[in-house]
C-alpha cells in the first residue's frame, strides 16, 4: 500500500469518542530526563543523599502515581523509539544508539504518538534530543511534531570540543590527536517547524549544553501558554539533556548546592520541572493536563558521572534491573488518585497506547503494537498491571525476560563495559528477595521456564507475523505482504 494512502486510512480511523469519560481531551506533557537513575530523586530514596533535595518533583509524586517497576529499554534510542511508537525497538530497527555516519532513525512508515495526537487536533512540540533520525527527512517535524528545538543525536558529542584543550572532561591531547572539525563536522542545535526547512541555531558543545535545558524549558512553557490561551489541546514532549554526561549544570546553578556538579545538576533538574508545572498552573490548564515525569534509561555508567541506581545492580546498556527500572511519576487530577504507589510491571511502550486512548485516538491495527493500556492501573480501577512481563533486548540480543516477580537471564552482562556472556543455562532471580540479582534459583524452580518462555515464544511468533524492520532501512518503507 502507498505510504500516503496508508496514513490517510489511519487518520480516518481516529474519530473514536474520547476515552475515560472526560469532557475534553487532556493536554499531555512528558518530561523525559536523560539517564536519570532510579535512586536520584528524593521520592525514590535519593535527593538529599545525592547532595540536592528535589522538592518540586517529590511533590508531583505525591499528587499522582509513582511506579517502582517502570521499565525502559537498555539504551537511549530504543527507549525513545518505544515511547513514541508503542513497539519494542527490535521491531523498528532502532534497537541501539546509532553510530555517526551510519543510516539511522525511524522509517516514516512508523506512526508516532505525535502523529496520532496531531490527527486528534493536538498542537505538538518537542524540545530536546530526538535520537530517532539524524537526516533532515527523519527529523521530528516529519513525524508528527509541529515544532522542534534540540539535537538530532546524542550529548556525547559535546565532549569533542574538549578533546584538544585542557578541561575538566578530558585531558589535553594536542590538536593533531584531538578532534578536527574538518574531519568530523560539529553537531548543531536545530530549530524546525512543520513544512519548513530546519535551521542550525548554534553548535552543540560544552558551553551550549550547559544552557540547553533552560532554553528547552523556556520554549516549552511558551508553547504551553500559547496553546492554552487558544483553547487548543497540546502534546508537549520535553526530553531534557540532564543528567546525561557530561553532567554539568547551567552556570546559574554552578556551586548552588556546594556539593559538586552532580548535585547542582540535580537541583537544576528539579527547578526545570517546577517551571513547567508552574506554567501549566499559570495558564489555567493544570486540572486538565496529564503530566508524566520519567527517565529513558538507568544511570550513567562512566565515572565521574555514574548514576545512583538505588537498590538495583548494573548499569544501562544491560538487562540488569539498574538498566531497566527507571523513575516514573504521573499526575492527572480527577483521574489518577494522589499518593498512589505501585510495584506492578509497566513498560515504556505502554505509554503510547495509554496516552493515545486518553486522547480518544486508536492505535494502528496494521502492525504489531506492544504497548497495552495501563490507565485502569493508574486510575486505581484495578490493582494489577495489564502486562505480566516482557522480553528484554540489549541491542539485537534477547538478554532476559521478566515475568511477574521473576527475571530469567539468557546472557550475563552486569555493566555497560562488560563483555556479554551467553549462559550455558539460564539464570533465574526472584526480584522480591534478591534485588541485586546475585542468587540463581533455577534449580528447584524450573517450572518458571513455562510462563517465561511463553512470553518469549509469543513475542518471537509476532516477529514471524510482522517481520522487524532492519536498522538503516531507507524510506519509503512498505512491509512485505503477509
From TrEMBL:
InterPro entries: Alkaline_phosphatase_core_sf (IPR017850), Sulfatase (IPR050738), Sulfatase_N (IPR000917). Its cofactor is Ca(2+). GO terms for molecular function: arylsulfatase activity; metal ion binding. This is Putative sulfatase. Belongs to the sulfatase family. Pfam families: Sulfatase. Residues 26-361 form the Sulfatase N-terminal domain. Keywords: Calcium, Hydrolase, Metal-binding, Signal. The keyword Hydrolase applies. Residues 1-23 form the signal peptide. It comes from the Bacteria. Gene3D superfamilies: 3.30.1120.10, Alkaline Phosphatase, subunit A (3.40.720.10).
Amino acid at each position: 500500500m502507498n505510504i500516503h494512502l496508508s496514513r490517510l486510512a489511519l487518520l480516518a480511523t481516529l474519530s473514536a469518542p474520547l476515552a475515560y469519560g472526560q469532557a475534553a481531551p487532556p493536554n499531555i506533557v512528558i518530561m523525559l530526563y536523560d539517564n536519570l537513575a532510579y535512586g536520584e530523586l528524593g521520592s525514590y530514596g535519593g535527593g538529599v543523599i545525592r547532595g540536592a533535595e528535589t522538592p518540586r518533583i517529590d511533590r508531583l509524586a505525591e499528587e499522582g502515581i509513582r511506579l517502582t517497576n517502570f521499565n525502559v529499554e537498555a539504551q537511549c534510542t530504543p527507549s525513545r523509539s518505544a515511547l513514541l511508537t508503542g513497539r519494542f525497538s527490535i521491531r523498528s530497527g532502532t534497537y541501539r544508539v546509532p553510530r555517526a555516519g551510519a543510516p539511522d532513525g525511524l522509517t516514516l512508515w512508523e506512526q508516532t504518538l505525535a502523529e496520532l495526537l496531531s490527527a486528534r487536533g493536538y498542537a505538538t512540540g518537542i524540545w530536546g534530543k530526538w535520537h530517532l533520525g539524524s537526516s533532515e527527512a527523519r527529523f521530528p517535524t516529519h513525524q508528527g511534531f509541529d515544532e522542534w528545538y534540540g539535537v538530532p543525536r546524542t550529548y556525547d558529542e559535546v565532549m569533542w570540543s574538549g578533546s584538544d584543550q585542557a578541561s575538566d572532561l578530558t585531558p589535553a591531547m594536542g590538536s593533531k590527536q584531538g578532534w578536527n572539525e574538518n574531519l568530523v563536522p560539529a553537531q548543531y542545535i536545530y530549530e524546525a517547524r512543520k513544512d519548513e526547512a530546519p535551521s542550525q541555531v548554534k553548535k552543540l558543545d560544552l558551553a551550549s549544553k550547559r544552557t540547553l535545558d533552560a532554553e528547552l524549558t523556556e520554549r516549552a512553557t511558551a508553547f504551553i501558554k500559547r496553546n492554552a490561551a487558544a483553547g487548543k489541546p497540546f502534546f508537549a514532549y520535553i526530553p531534557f539533556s540532564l543528567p546525561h554526561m557530561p553532567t554539568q549544570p547551567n552556570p546559574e546553578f554552578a556551586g548552588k548546592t556546594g556539593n559538586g556538579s552532580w548535585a547542582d545538576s540535580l537541583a537544576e533538574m528539579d527547578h526545570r520541572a517546577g517551571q513547567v508545572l508552574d506554567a501549566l498552573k499559570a495558564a489555567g490548564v493544570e486540572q486538565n493536563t496529564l503530566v508524566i515525569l520519567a527517565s529513558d534509561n538507568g544511570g550513567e555508567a562512566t565515572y565521574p558521572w555514574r548514576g545512583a541506581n538505588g537498590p538495583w545492580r548494573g548499569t544501562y546498556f544491560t538487562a540488569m534491573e539498574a538498566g531497566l527500572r527507571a523513575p516514573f511519576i504521573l499526575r492527572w487530577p480527577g483521574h489518577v488518585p494522589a499518593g498512589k504507589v505501585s510495584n506492578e510491571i509497566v513498560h515504556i511502550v505502554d505509554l503510547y497506547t495509554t496516552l493515545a486512548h486518553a486522547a480518544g485516538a486508536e492505535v494502528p491495527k496494521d502492525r504489531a503494537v506492544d504497548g497495552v493500556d495501563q490507565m485502569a492501573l493508574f486510575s486505581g480501577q484495578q490493582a494489577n498491571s495489564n502486562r505480566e512481563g516482557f522480553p528484554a533486548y540489549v541491542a539485537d540480543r534477547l538478554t532476559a525476560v521478566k515475568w511477574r516477580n521473576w527475571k530469567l537471564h539468557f546472557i550475563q552482562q552486569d555493566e555497560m563495559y562488560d563483555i556479554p556472556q551467553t549462559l550455558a543455562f539460564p539464570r533465574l532471580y526472584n526480584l522480591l528477595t534478591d534485588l541485586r540479582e546475585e542468587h540463581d534459583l533455577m534449580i528447584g524452580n524450573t517450572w518458571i521456564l513455562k510462563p517465561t518462555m511463553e512470553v518469549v515464544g509469543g513475542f518471537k511468533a509476532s516477529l514471524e507475523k510482522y517481520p522487524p524492520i532492519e536498522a538503516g532501512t531507507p524510506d519509503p518503507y512498505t512491509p512485505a505482504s503477509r
